[in-house]
Amino acid sequence: MSEQATGSLLRELRTKAGLTQEYLAKTLSVSRPKYTAIETGRTELSRTEIKKLADLYEISPTEIVEGRLALSDDFELDCIDEIAQDDENDIIPREVNPKVNIAKLQNILLYVLGKVGARPNVGETVLYKLLYFIDFDYYEKTGRSITGLSYVKNHYGPTPVREFSHIVQAMREAGVLEVVETPYFSHLQKKYLPAKNADLSSLSADEIKHIDTELERLGYKSANELTELSHKDTPWIAAKQNKRIDYQLAMYRTDDTSVRDYVDEL
Question: Is 112:215 a contact under the CB 8 Å cutoff?
Answer without folding.
Answer: yes
